[in-house]
Structures are given as C-alpha cells and as structure tokens.
Design brief:
single chain; alpha+beta; 2 domains; 7-stranded antiparallel beta sheet; 5-stranded antiparallel beta sheet; 6 helices; 24% strand
C-alpha cells in the first residue's frame, strides 16, 4: 500500500469518528507533517553516522597512505644520497689519479722525456671530469700512465744507445794486423785445422827493449804470498807493456787452501838479480825462456839449464810450445785443464823480436799450432784463464785478470 492509497482510508476513518471534514483534513495534515519531520530526523542520524564511519575509514586510509608516501620519500632520499655518495667517491678517485699522472708527467719531463703530447691528453681529462664522465676519464688516465712509462723506456734506451755510441767513438779502435807486429800491439785472426782464433800480440825488438821478470815476493813463499796487479808491475819497473807470468795457486781455487798465491816454478827477479824457487830449476816436464843482453835463450827442458852468463830475466813454466819453429807440446804431460778452451798466454821469439801473445778461447795444443802458423821460432806457455792479463801503453788489451805473484814486463 502506498501513501496515495492510505490517505482516503485514514480520512474516511476520521469522518466516521464524527470529525468535520475540514477538521479531519487538518488533523490528517498535522499527523502527516509530524511523520515527515520524525522520518527526516531518523534519516539524518543514519546519514551522520554513516558519514562519521566513512570519515574514520578515510582518516585511517589517509594515515596509511601518508605513511607509505613518507616511506617512499625516504627511500627516494636514500637512493639520491647513495648515488651522490658514489659519484663523490668516483670524483675523488679520478681526481687523485689525475694528480698522480700529472705529477708523473712532470717528473718524467725533468728526466728529459718529451711530454707535450701527454699534457694535451691530460687537458682533455679535465673536461671529462667536469662532465662527470668518471669511468672514461679513469680509463684514459690508465692509458696515459702506460704511455708515459713507454716514453721513459724509449728515452732510456735512446740515451743508452747514444752513450754506447759515444763510448765506441771515444774508445780507440783495435789495430788489426795480418801477421805479428814489428812493434806495438795489434789483433789478428789465425786459422788452423781446429778453427779460427782471435789473437792479441805485442811485439818489441830486443835491440831496443829490455825484458824484465819480477815477483811480488823477495824469497820463496808457500802460502798467502804477496801479489800485485800487472799494471803495478809495469809501473814500478818503468815499463810500457807486460803479461801475466807462471802458473800459481789462486785464492778462488778450493784445492789451493793452505798454499794461496804460491807458485813452485822458478822466476828470475830482475830487480833482486836472483832466482825465486831456484831449488826447483831442475824439475822435469818444464821449459824455460831466459833473456840476456845478447838476446833470448830457450830451454825445451828447464832441467838442462846450468846457469847463463849475463842473465837479465827468465822464467820456467810448462809446456814448451814451439822449438825451432815446430810444435813440441807432445813432449810434455798436460793437465786436463790445459785441454779446455780458454785464454792462453805465452812469450815467443823470432830473430831479434820478442812477443807477448794471447790466443782467445783455445786449448794449449791449439795455442802451439797458432804460434807455429804465426811463424815464431821458440815459444813458452804461461798462465791463462782467469789470470790472463795483457797490457800495453796505459791500458789492458786483455784482462786485468787476477792479482799476480809474478809477471813479465817490456821496458
């Protein structure tokens, strides 16, 4: 039933209760207005309650949303802070690297390196840093540093080459000869059956040259014997050339413990005018080269020596190498060391000429063949190896080798 249907019924009910029609209408209208008012209040309360509930829900959701917004903003700030920190670290690292490379460039420039091209590259690095392109700047700085290292290496290599060329230009050229020199020093190449050898030779004429043999000791010595450099021997005797003397027991040989720098081979001391180790003059398997005012005397076997009038110098060693132009090495017992290739020194004569000769990288038998090929008349083997020393006019041509207990000098 709707309101339109209920109105006639309610109105007729009032008429039936003896209300005048007009009165019935007014009563009905009053009741109707009261209902309307009451319905409005109830409805308003429901709306208000609903609005309050909605407001509470909105406030709760707003609070949650605000919290989420705050969290997002904090996360964004953290991200921005981390990014800024990373960029700052990258900036500091690349600037520090730039300063190091710049300092390196200055240091290399002081050392003579041409760094103009490097400085231009460093200028471009500044632009990369200002443009915050730190990764590219870092890579280019690494490449520049490597380029600097190469420039320095090239500079040092060039300097070394110049220095070597300078020394080579300043160093006197080795005089080369095809045969033994009539005087002075020269280097020649000698070919024999077993190979080709480099030979250093000093020649002097006995008519104008005095041969001296000298020792660092004044009497026989069996251990810790005195020694001198070849240059010292030559200087003390007023000489111009010289060579190492006899075999001896060097301090670097284990087998020489207890007999260091001793030698059991006779040497005539020209200054003292006497033989050192004279008691060993008559041992076998040894040869002697002696000098008097009349020239050289060679003894293939030293034990055949019975004294020599006017002797000025002399020394005994083994083996004899050449006698009357022939190889005589086979007449002696050789040690294993003498059959190993090394520097080999000896004294040789031919007519009025006397020679100090060194063959490089040869055995003693090869040395004898070399001397035969060179045409000497007589020759005596001397020490060699690590004791080799050949000196002429102020400089070593071979050596200086070890400090020596005896030596042979030209003056």
């Amino acid at each position: 039933m709707n309101i339109r249907e209920s109105i006639p019924r309610f109105f007729h009910k009032l008429i039936s209760l003896n209300f005048a029609p007009t009165t019935a209408v007014l009563i009905y209208i009053g009741i109707l207005l009261t209902g309307i008012i009451l319905y409005g209040e109830v409805t308003n309360r429901s709306v208000i309650l609903s609005l309050k509930e909605i407001s509470r829900d909105l406030n709760s959701e707003s609070s949650i949303l605000k919290q989420k917004v705050d969290n997002l903003m904090k996360e964004n700030e953290d991200l921005r802070s981390d990014d800024a920190r990373a960029q700052l670290e990258s900036y500091n690292e690349v600037v520090e690297k730039y300063e190091m490379v710049k300092e390196k460039s200055k240091d290399f420039e002081i050392q003579g390196v041409n760094v103009k091209s490097i400085d231009k590259k460093l200028d471009s690095i500044v632009d990369l840093i200002f443009g915050k392109n730190y990764s590219k700047a870092d890579k280019q700085l690494t490449d520049i540093s490597k380029s600097l290292d190469k420039l320095l290496r090239d500079k040092k290599a060039a300097d070394a080459a110049k220095e070597a060329a300078k020394k080579a230009a300043a160093k006197p050229k080795i005089p080369v000869c095809s045969s033994l020199p009539s005087s002075g020093y020269c280097q020649l190449t000698v070919k024999i059956g077993s190979g080709t050898f480099t030979v250093d030779a000093i020649g002097a004429n006995l008519s104008s040259t005095t041969v001296v043999t000298d020792t660092a000791i004044s009497s026989n010595c069996s251990n810790s014997c005195a020694t001198k450099s070849l240059q010292t021997y030559i200087s003390e005797n007023g000489g111009f050339a010289g060579m190492h003397g006899t075999y001896f027991c060097p301090p670097d040989y284990i087998s020489c413990a207890g007999k260091i720098n001793s030698f059991d081979l006779p040497v005539y001391n020209s200054r003292l005018k006497k033989w050192i180790n004279e008691d060993k003059l008559f041992w076998s398997n040894r040869a002697m080269m002696a000098f008097t005012s009349g020239g050289a005397v060679f003894y293939p076997q030293a034990n055949s020596y019975s004294g020599l009038s006017g002797i000025k110098a002399g020394l005994v060693n083994f083996p004899g190498l050449v006698y009357n132009g022939k190889n005589i090495v086979g007449n002696y017992s050789l040690t294993s060391a003498q059959n190993i290739r090394a520097n080999r020194g000896g004294v040789a004569v031919k007519g009025s000429m006397v020679y100090l000769i060194n063959a490089r990288n040869a055995t003693v038998p090869e040395f004898a063949n070399i001397l035969v090929t060179l045409g000497v008349t007589h020759a005596l083997n001397l020490d060699g190896g690590g004791s080799t020393a050949l000196y002429y006019q102020g400089s070593y041509k071979v050596g200086p080798g070890r400090s020596l207990p005896n030596a042979l000098i030209f003056k």
